[in-house]
Design goal:
208 residues; 0% strand
């Protein structure tokens, strides 16, 4: 009976089987295309993320550069006078790092705009750099203000002053904590995103 039925309906069976095969192939093709598309977007974002991280590292180095800021001091003095915050006896040079951060607010915001996508693609470990950058900028601004205010009131304490100066100005020595922190976190970021370009299995690694 089954044989008779097949002989009578073999064309319909073949057409149905062909339709199923086509559907399966279409689903597989769509999955492959989606995987390739997402993978491409992930690699493109990884490149952008690393580039912005290196830029932020460079920005922190610029902020903490203790050379060639005579023109900046004058600009800060004028700004303070406009806001009626200028004090003749205060050392304006201490405020240079803080104002450099404020002037680069757009670049900093541009880096922070990548935070959500970085989490989506790479997980919570990728956000470590944001914690370091945020902490560094806060410390620099607070130390910058403290040194300036205390220089006016003559409240400078040798030990505290040394600590704050070490925060706002780069020492260019191996014991520069801020430089070490940002260097380590950027290198860890590059270490973990490099496998994406080499088409390896992604797994976050932590530097020791």
């Amino acid at each position: 009976v089954l044989l008779c039925w097949f002989q009578e309906n073999w064309k319909d069976v073949i057409e149905a089987a062909s339709a199923v095969t086509v559907a399966v192939c279409a689903v597989c093709a769509l999955y492959t295309w989606r995987k390739e598309f997402v993978g491409k977007k992930k690699i493109e974002f990884a490149a952008e993320f690393v580039e912005k991280a290196i830029d932020i590292k460079g920005l922190i180095a610029y902020v903490r550069n203790g050379y060639s800021f005579a023109n900046e001091k004058k600009e800060i003095e004028n700004e303070l006078k406009k806001e009626n915050k200028f004090v003749p006896n205060g050392n304006v040079a201490y405020l240079v790092p803080k104002y450099r951060i404020l002037k680069n607010d757009e670049n900093i915001r541009s880096f922070y705009a990548l935070r959500t996508k970085a989490f989506m693609y790479f997980g919570n470990s990728a956000l470590k750099i944001y914690d370091v950058v945020k902490s560094d900028f806060i410390k620099i601004k607070l130390s910058s203000e403290a040194l300036y205010n205390n220089s006016y009131y003559n409240y400078l304490n040798d030990e505290k002053e040394k600590q704050d100066v070490a925060v706002i100005w780069a020492s260019y020595n191996s014991d520069d904590k801020i430089d070490q922190e940002i260097e380590k976190v950027v290198e860890e970021l590059k270490l973990n995103l490099d496998p994406l370009y080499q088409d390896k299995t992604f797994k976050w690694k932590t530097l020791k």
